[in-house]
Amino acid sequence: MEGKVVSGDRSISQAALMGNAARAAGGFDRLGLGADDTVAMMLRNDFAFFEAAFGAGLIGAYATPINWHYKADEAGYIIDDCDARVLVVHADLLPQIAEGIPDGVHVLVVKTPPEIRDAYGIPAEACAVPAGATDWDEWVAQQPVWDRPPPAMRTNIIYTSGTTGRPKGVRREPATPEMAAKIDEMVSVIFDVRPGEERRTVVTGPVYHSAPNLYALMNVRDGGLTVLQPRFDPEELLQMIEQHRITHLHMVPTMFVRLLKLPEEVRRKYDLSSLKFVVHAAAPCAPETKRQMIEWWGPVINEYYGGTETGGAIFHTAEEALRKPGTVGRPIPGAEVRIYGDDGQVLPAGEVGEIYLRIGRWPDFTYHKKDEMRRECERDGLITCGDVGWLDEDGFLFISDRKKDMVISGGVNIYPAEIEAVLIHMPGVADCAVFGIPDDEFGEALCAYIQPQPEAGLDAAGVRAWLRERIAGYKVPKVVEFRAALPREDSGKIFKRKLRAPYWAEAGRQI
């Protein structure tokens, strides 16, 4: 089938989108951009994102997506740090960052489309390109088509979530043909992207985030059908799967949890038989959640593990998930994983330590303008994403938690992810985060923040009692708080720093 991208009631053929990208490249060239320059993009899931990203790549420039939740200071930092000379931004997002845009950056404004307007309740007047600003669509239409030979491939500069301090930009060296082939090989395993095979997918996550970004770009590049979901809604996703006969999906565990909490009559209402390959990553997935999804959708649920820095180096199938509950998989061909102790020694199977990964012949990276931080995350040529875990005797990797999230209470290591995996299944719990707070007696104590479902009627004592029946008593949080919403990115990651920081500030110390 001919490649096509769909968003709401709008659609564009792959050929037309790539034609716009070639004109965008011509326009970037006329603005003076060239190899290794940067185009920043603050866009939701929309056609313009792909036009700008592919257009930057055609001239050998880097594209840098920006989290569209950011305000002026946050976005301005990234635009400045990545040395962007052009910013492409949705009209409704421009006012929230206008004061942070550095001088000299050429701003191109994209009309916010109706489906995004409706999904986020944006006033119609905020969706129009403001007077005096440069309209992206009009600008692209006026540019010459870029038809020069493509340079060495640059991947996008992706900024990490910034859970500790300012975000860091992961900038890779231009890929040689051998490196580009290795990227395609990884993608063929973890995303099941295989040229020539029909693919019909929904992009459910925000394309500013590393994994949805690569997934979406590869799908649009290789053709087939790509449906953009402006904002994740569980029943709407089921509707899209049935309507478009979706074959492939990229998801995060939070989406699974929300899908599983739909009423049974809603879950059984839609035909999902077209699904062939569903992959998830980005956050821990409770084994019970995985099992329930496999029972519902069949043995199409796969998982990979890695990071922006490492790529998806670890992978496993539904069959392996059922055989090895809790695993994130084994290294893909050409990848390596090791577990290191605090003394720098490689640990044997079964012992918990920091996880280091690499994929051979993978384009190397640095943190843009922060080479010293790049050196800090490497050991013996392998890179850590900051997670701790262990390998079993068969070489399957298990994640305990983030190294920085591990709580040491009374000398005992406690992994909040383990508690969260249980707590998320408590009736009435929509979302949760567990972390360490200062404690005079034990050094640290556990604190849980819960986002309850409407009219759930939860209380702290009830939560602790429910957990005490399912986990060891020392793992039951001492403090339980409730909030209408938790500070979570669409990627599935909760900004625990924002919840944790006030407790440590009051204690006069930091962790």
From TrEMBL:
InterPro entries: AMP-bd_C, AMP-bd_C_sf, AMP-binding_CS, AMP-dep_synth/lig_dom, ANL_N_sf. It comes from the Bacteria. The keyword Glycoprotein does not apply. Keywords: Ligase. The keyword Coiled coil does not apply. Belongs to the ATP-dependent AMP-binding enzyme family. This is Acyl-CoA synthetase.
